[in-house]
Structure formats: structure tokens, C-alpha cells
Amino acid sequence: EAAEKGGYPHFMLKEIFEQPEALRKTVAPRIKDGLPDLQVEAFTDELIRSVGKIHIVACGTASYAGMIGKCALEKLVRVPAEVCIASEFRYNDPILAPDDLVIVISQSGETADTLAALRLAKEKGIHTMAIVNVVGSSIAREADSIIYTWAGPEIAVASTKAYTVQMSVMYLIALKMALVRGTLTEEEVRRYCEIIQAMPEKQQDILAQSDTCQYFASRFQNAEHLFYIGRGLDYALSMEGSLKLKEISYIHSEAYAAGELKHGTISLITDHVPVVAVATQEHIYEKTISNIKEVTTRGAKVLLVVNDRFEVKDDIADYILRLPTTEDVLMPLLAVIPLQLFAYYTAVLRGCDVDKPRNLAKSVTVE
Ligand code: G6P
Fold it and tell me: Which three-class secondary structure state does DSSP give residue 126?
């Protein structure tokens, strides 16, 4: 097993560091002459033009990749998209119209609820697309259209590299749809594709700061409760950051839309309840900064993960991690890395079994 870990103490850390490579492998074959070329069976331009609404269905981390996908689709394609947890979707008599598209996301391709949701959508005659990591898995075999993520085997129970490539595929789908439907110009789509292709290098720069994340983790490791706050895409990303932390470190944490804190949850903020704030989106970052002030006033220690393009004073938070900048909509591909490293190091410092957290399974094939 030590050999399989390639010199890393845990599979999770190895997989976090494999993300630039996984991203490269997933994206490179799908960009031809600078434009998205998904090479997906049955996902024709005609179908793309006719899509009325997109339902993204998944469990766990894959559903949080779906949240990022929803934001990207709505922003770039202006098509309504919603994310449904598979176990809810399958029993809630979902409202599906003939021109809807169901996208299921699954690392393993074997999650029972996600597979059942896929079958339900197919039974209703809805076009299904699957984003799957394991080749030949049940979900991959049954979906009408399949896009594989090329993350390679993911061993750690907590998903990291699979999440990142799931996001990248959602971006490629959004760009392809935007091109076909004309919501972005060809030039704009080319620019996004170029930026995505250059993203692995930027991820590498963030990975080089892993010591800083370890230091931040050492400052927060004794917390019993913790909040993640952000708005829009930063909120979507906070959900994944919060899940990573709680599943492996056993610290209770919650992700909150930053503007919603004052409607109840701020009563839980004390000097023992730290906050991780994510602010990468230009049009709303100042609002999140105001929310940081609300929690520091109540004694919370704050770690701010921020786009380094923004002018943010050093004393706004106790700890600040400045991220290399890119197009706002693509920032989750970078911002996820410090959140993963923070969760990882926190769990290690607390002596947890990082790769095999209690009560969790890598793939849930029973209901
Ligand atoms: C399990 C795993 C999670 C994963 C979820 C969905 O709960 O512990 O890490 O996100 O299943 O798995 P899938 O294979 O469908 O992506």
C-alpha cells in the first residue's frame, strides 16, 4: 500500500496533488482547435438547442460539483438548471418535461440512488447524460450520453480529484451549449477554453502553498463547530469545503449563504466558532466582506480565501489565503484546493483516519 501511495502519507493527499494532471487528462481530449468538442454520442446540436431545463442529479460530493455546474450553466447558457439529490429525486415524482435534460454525476458510477434516478428519467423518456469516472460502470452503461472524467482511480473515501474533474466537465458542457445556443460568442468560448487549459499550472501554484494550509489547519484544529460562508459560486464551493472537513475531521461544520447568516445562524457564532469565508466573485465579494465583519464582531476567528485581484485589507480576517486570479466563473477550480488541504491537514492534526473515515463507504451501492 505504501508503494501505491507514491510517497504520500495518505491517498487523499496524493489525490489532491494529482488534480492538475487529472484536469489536463479530462479537458485536453475535449478541446479541438480551441473549441469544446465533447465527442458525446447523442448530444447533438439539435438536442442542445431544444433543452428547456436541466436537472442535475447526484449524491454527496458529486452533487456539489453539480451545484457549480448549475451556476455555470445558468450564467453562461442562461438555461434553467436545478440540482437534486438523487435519493430525493427518485421518490419525489419529479416534474420532467420532454425537452428537459437530466445530467447524473457519479465518481463510481454505481451509487444506488443515482442509478435509480437515471432509470426513472429514462423511463419517462427524458434524455440522460452521465458524468462518470469508472469506465464501464452501471451508470455509464445505461445513460444515453456518457462523458468520462479521467481522474484515474480515487481510493480515499473523501472525494477530491473526482470533484474537480466533474466541475471541469460541467464547464465544458456549459461552453458547448453556450456556443451552440449563441449565448457566448465563439471568441468568448475560445477564451474560456484557453483559460481552462492553463488551469493546471495555476492549481500547481496553489498546491505549492500547502504548508500555509497546514498552518491554518493548526490554528483551527480544536474547533468543535465551524461555519463556511460565501455567496453564489462561493456558496456552492463552501458546501464542498464544509463536507470535506466534517467527513474526515469530525468537526461539525455548516456551509451558509453569507447573506443568510443574520437570519438565525449568527446566534451560534462565538469566539469558539471559527468561520471560513470564500470570496472569489467580483460582483459580490464586498458583500461577503461585510458578512465577515459581522462575525468578527461576535468574536469569530476568520480564515478568508480570496481572489488576489481584490483589494482586501490584511486586517479584515485573522488569516488570509490569496488565490491566483482567473475568470470568476472558473474560480472554483482553484479555490477548492485550499479547502481540501485545510480539511486534510485538520483531520491529520486531530489524529483521524483520513483515508477511511468512520461509518463512510467509498461507493454506496445499497439504498
Ligand atoms: C459516497 C462517498 C462520497 C461520494 C458519494 C457519491 O457517499 O463517500 O464521497 O461523493 O458516495 O458517490 P459517487 O460514486 O456516486 O460519486
Answer: coil
Summarize pLDDT for 278-296 with one digit per residue, the tens.
999 999 999 999 999 999 9
CA R_g for the chain: 20
CA pair distance 354, 348, nearest whole angstrom: 7
Give the nearest ligand 1 atom to 361 CA.
8
Out of 139, 362, 365, 367, mutate this one to test ligand 1's pocket (max ligand atoms within 8 Å of CB): namely: 362
Cell of 290: 461585510
Say how many Å lie between the CA of residue 59 and the centre of ligand 1: 6
Helix (H, G, I), strand (E, B) or coil at 37: coil
Residues 283-301 as b/e (b if ≥16 CB within 10 A, e otherwise) read ebbeebbebbebbbeeebb
Distance CA(283)–CA(272), nearest Å, equals 31
CA 12 vs. chain centroid, Å, equals 16
* % of the chain exceeding 90 in pLDDT: 96
Q: Say how many Å lie between the CA of residue 167 and the centre of ligand 1.
A: 15
* H or E stretch covering 13: helix 11-17
What DSSP string describes 283-340?
TTHHHHHHHHHHHHHTT--EEEEEETTS---GGGSSEEEEEPP--GGGTHHHHHHHHH
Quote the distance between the C-alpha of residue 156 and its chain's center.
Answer: 17
DSSP 40-92: -TT--HHHHHH---EEEEE-HHHHHHHHHHHHHHHHHT---EEEEEHHHHTTS
Percent of the chain past pLDDT 70, that is, above it, reads 100
Q: At what angle do helices 332-349 and 186-207 cross, to 10 degrees?
A: 20
Could you tell me which residues are beta bridge partners of residue 253? Answer: 226
